Amino acid sequence: MRKMYKMIGTAVITSAMLAASLSAVNVAADSSEKTKIRFATWDVADDIDAQQGLVDEFNAAHDDIEVTLEAYGRDFDTKISAGMGSGDAPDVMYMWNYPAYHLGLEPLDSYIEAEGADYKSDFYDALWNYNEIGDSIYGIPVGFTTHALYYNRDIFAEAGVDEPTADWTWNDLKEAAKTIYEKTGTKGFAFQMKPDPYDFEMYFWSNGTAYCDAEGKLADQINSEEAVNAVTMFQEMAQDGYAAATEGSGSDEFRSGNAAMFVYGSWAISSLDADGVNYGITKIPSFEGQDHSISILSSSGLSISKDSKNKEAAWEFVKFWTGADCNKARIGKELPVLNSVVASEGIMEQEHYAPFYEMLDQSAGYTPASFIMSDWSEVSEELELTFESVFNPSVYMNVEDALTEAADAQW
After folding, report:
1. Fewer beta carbons under 10 A from the terminal one: N or C of the chain?
2. What is the DSSP secondary-structure string of 265-290?
3. Bridge partners, 151 (sequence order)
4. Cα angle at 267 between 49 and 274, to 5 degrees?
5. What does the alpha-carbon distance between residue 273 and residue 345 come to, in Å, rounded to a whole number?
6. What is the tens place of the pLDDT at every residue in 177-218?
């Protein structure tokens, strides 16, 4: 009897082991049928949780594709560069620095064309210029911000000055800033003493010039009369005392009530709302004689590695991540890039969002120097020093001399 029990027990164990083995084989088979996609993001903290939720949603809807989210955070550029160098880059990745990475990315023109004309036209047209190099598109727009003018309503009311409007010129801003400073002692405007050259080019565009020509030459562009006038305006506002050239973006001075106006992207909205600042936003003022102002775009896209072994599956995920549902899910963290979503969600009726889209509409067709100049990183570093020499109150270098020096160097 004891031997029988032992035999029965052995049989049960063997059957269980066999069933487990078969189950493992089936799981392995199911797993092997799924195409594995690696997706790299630069976001951190709560944003990662939200992104993981969307990835889970995609995976649940696809029996044949499984996406794994890889959060690189501050190490994003290092890991992307290393992955591209070793041929092991993620299949799909966030992207903004196309000049640096486009050789490691899959051109997406044929994928876009296959989706039909309505697919591409749903994205704001100005965004494509920031997601392409030459004649090829390397990323599908995900989010963006233009820049706009923030103003403190309480400070304007205290000074008895009318609030800015969309048709303001820089002369209007200067007059308002002077009056505010004279009546309240608060700086009327704040701007960066050492601005990011990528951002600052928008003021050159707005006054009818640029850093360089189509071949990347600085001479007669960065030191043109229009360029000198644009930069001189900022210098004179600081020299006259009613504007502050700050170490940061101007947002700290604005938030603390020490500046009545500053120009910035939509990133400031959530923090200003959290602080309870009574503020408004409108378009950037235009220069005299110009039809309207132009804004630089800070744009992010989604790209596919040229080394990906699963590009069709990667494209399916790209379409999902840049589609309407995900665009809606990320409102509050980034501005939607689809015309259809902006319309359906009433974005243009929201006073703090609408000016960024108005700036977007009037900023199409401009290509940043960083997309033209092969040595932009070196040029950018030198331009930072140039602008600092012009705006730093301990120097206040002559603008024309500083810009001509930059042009003559032709790094």
Report:
1. N
2. ETTHHHHHHHHT--EEEEPPPBPTT-
3. 261, 280
4. 80
5. 20
6. 999 999 999 999 999 999 999 999 999 999 999 999 999 999
